[in-house]
Amino acid sequence: MKKYCFALLLVAVIGLLSGQTWIRSYPWIDLSPSPTNSGRAEVCNVIPAIGGGYLLQGYFKFFDEVVATYEDNVFWKLDENGDIIWRRTEGGTFAFNSIASNGIDRYYCLQDGDYLYVYDAEMNRIGRYYFHAVNGFSAYFYDMQYVDDGLVFAGRIGNQAVVLKTDFQFNVIWQSDIFGIGEALSIEPFGDGWISMTIREFAEMNAIGDTLWTYYDSINNTGFYDCTVASDNSIYLLGLFKIWKVNTVEGSLELIAENVPGGFDSYRKRSIDMLPNGNIVYTGRTSTNQLLHSYSPDGTLQWSRSYDTLGAIYFGTGSKNLLVMPDGSILFCMHHGTIVLIKTDPDGNVVANDDPIAPVPVASIMAYPQPASSKVMVSFKSDQLGDLGYSIFNIKGQRVYYAKIHGHSREQSFDLPDEALERMTNGVYLICLKRGDKQIASTKLVVAK
């Protein structure tokens, strides 16, 4: 249900470090090709867009009396301020469950559980695949993640939860063991393998889908809604009024917080993710309309926030409806007669666009060549010296490398260590220049070995 989106290219947006926050609504009622007497729309997913900004996706349907006359998916390409760059409609008569991207030139959209649509960076369709036609059996998928050589899906075959990997033409490469009843709701990378969960089961798998261990909640029929992995490889699960921490060594779960706010919505509309400061953030509507909540890893409530959502009361229905960026900004989407995207700061606050914004420190960082293969040169400038370092994040927002910068020059260049390159597979990365705990500049790096 992330996030990430896919498959989220969290590193494609460099201009997000400005600290701007906002609430935006997006038109859809003008999309009907003919006169109708009513219409409805939902918002589903938001991920970082190729080339910067965000890609927001929703689904709309128009009616003549009670008969649907036109329905389609709609995509908004947004800049870092949430303003529309372009809008496209494409994808047929069911909403997309999940969206992922390779960060360079492809979007992958999962529709109605077993159709895969492939688009270029401008949402021109390249291909459409039907799982049953390609593989000969029926499946339903709810979440997916992009990897270098294919896509990993979570869902069900029949009424049994599975995770499986396909190539980019939807051919199965491996399939996990059955690990629960109903559908697998979420899939997240964990170490060299994967984690997934149904509403009652949690499972860890290795890189080829072999089940390492499972946990079954025999008491709570709505025990698990979504899962996420922290930068220290801790795993957290969001349940009905509960947050769990997973002990992968002992194969057990620890309840770190209960009676948490935000259990007013169904499981498909609640998502959990991690902030760069190590705290947990999740969506969940309370009876008093608090929507976004944060807990520390030890189960202490940090904050809950309410917003003017312009009448929207339902969270996005796709698996990528909550997005945490490397700079800590948080985005989530909502709908109910209107389609709304909200961007907050790391503390869940939305500051008015005309409020004073502190100037950004004078600093820059560059990496070349682009794309890089066996050697990367990094150059930076900073008007503030002392305690400088840099972090490298993958498209999931996970830190893959960190190092201090030695020396006392305001301008410096160095080769990226082999140790860092060995941890980076093909894809898009974000290199962040830091002074102490504060991020002061960033640059995108494309790796193609």
* First-to-last CA distance: 30 Å
- How many domains? The number is 2
The CATH topology assignment of the largest domain is Methylamine Dehydrogenase, Chain H
- Judged by helices, strands and strand pairing, the structural class is mainly beta
What's the overall geometry? Answer: globular
Estimated radius of gyration: 21 Å
Q: Which bin fits the share of residues in helices? A: under 10%
Strand content: over 45%
Number of strands: 36
Q: Let me know the largest β-sheet.
A: 5 strands, antiparallel
Mean pLDDT: 87
Helical segment count: 2
Write the CATH homologous superfamily of the largest domain.
YVTN repeat-like/Quinoprotein amine dehydrogenase
The CATH architecture of the largest domain can be named as 7 Propeller
Describe this structure in words.
This protein is mainly β and 449 residues long. It is 2% helix and 49% strand. The protein has helices at residues 131-135, 418-422, and strands at residues 22-26, 38-48, 54-64, 67-78, 84-89, 96-101, 107-111, 115-119, 125-130, 140-147, 150-157, 160-166, 172-175, 186-190, 193-197, 201-205, 211-216, 226-229, 235-239, 242-247, 252-258, 272-274, 280-283, 290-295, 301-306, 314-315, 322-324, 330-335, 339-344, 363-368, 377-382, 388-393, 399-404, 411-415, 427-435, 438-447. Strands 1, 26, 27, 28 and 29 form a five-stranded antiparallel β-sheet that branches.
